Amino acid sequence: MIIVVGSINMDVCLNVDKIPVPGETVMAEKVSKNCGGKGANQAVAAARLGAEVIMLGCVGEDENGDSLLHSLEMSGVKTEYVMKVPVASSSAYICISKKGDNSIVVDSSANRFVTVDYIEKNKFLFADAKYCILQMEIPVETIKCVIKLCRTYNVKIIFNPSPLSEFDVRLIQGVDYLIPNEIELSEIMGKKSDSLCDYDCIKFLKENEIGTLVVTLGSLGCKIFDNVNETVFIKTKEREAIDTTGAGDTFLGAFVTAISERKPIEYAANFANIASGIEVMRPGAQRSMPTREEVEYEYNENFS
């Protein structure tokens, strides 16, 4: 079983010609609402691919909260422990350019209620879990509490360090899998992304006692670093991206699904590349995430 502890947001998507720079005003060509949030997205991605997933998070007592819960449930995520709170559901405001790039601002609202007390009330769930997925859209003290519980119950920790606004490198020390994109990793390490080399990544992994570091590289694929094997670059198929919102979350959900099934790590990375590749060719986040059949069909076409 996989526990996802994290954010549940309603995405307000603004389709624009290009992402505005500071001080610039642009006109939206289209506005739409989609269910999202990094935690919820990762939960949906894993559940749609066949994993048993429990979501821990909060939504508001409003129409958006009902829609967010419905989206999770329709994808097969167990939501009985998601708490409704007397505030507005959290929202993310996403500018999406014609190239498929995006820029995101999140209003935390209900996500702030994912507190230590809430986790403590549901800590019994960790006794049966094998993996726990964490991100940075909930309070830092809650993240620390979850990490402690995972170590108590011997649950493997998958950490996605995004967003980085309150990041403390001590959070990731000793995690089993750290899955950042190259920009996030460069910020964590205090280096420019174009100057990062494999030696830097391996040194960082060893210094922080991380089990496996998986760096996502967008349209290029991903790189895998660990303490045993040589660095592996997993190339992905070139795609015609329509909307990259949720691509990283889809990758992570697919990757964890595969490793939870004890698949080899290179299989998991290829499986995740395919899943996120399918997702970017459709608009939205959760509603565009692929099924197990879609991913396996393409995997067999390319690797059988």
UniProtKB/TrEMBL annotation:
Its main location: cytoplasm. ATP binds at residues 181, 216-221, 248-249, 273. PROSITE patterns: PFKB_KINASES_2. Keywords: ATP-binding, Carbohydrate metabolism, Cytoplasm, Kinase, Magnesium, Metal-binding, Nucleotide-binding, Potassium, Transferase. It is an enzyme of class 2 (transferase). Residues 2-292 form the Carbohydrate kinase PfkB domain. It comes from the Bacteria. Substrate binds at residues 9-11, 37-41, 137, 249. It holds the Pfam family PfkB. It is found in: Cytoplasm. GO terms for molecular function: ribokinase activity. Its EC number is 2.7.1.15. Its cofactor is Mg(2+). The active site is at residue 249. Requires a divalent cation, most likely magnesium in vivo, as an electrophilic catalyst to aid phosphoryl group transfer. It is the chelate of the metal and the nucleotide that is the actual substrate. K(+) binds at residues 243, 245, 279, 282, 284, 288. Catalyzes the phosphorylation of ribose at O-5 in a reaction requiring ATP and magnesium. The resulting D-ribose-5-phosphate can then be used either for sythesis of nucleotides, histidine, and tryptophan, or as a component of the pentose phosphate pathway. Belongs to the carbohydrate kinase pfkB family. Homodimer. This is Ribokinase.
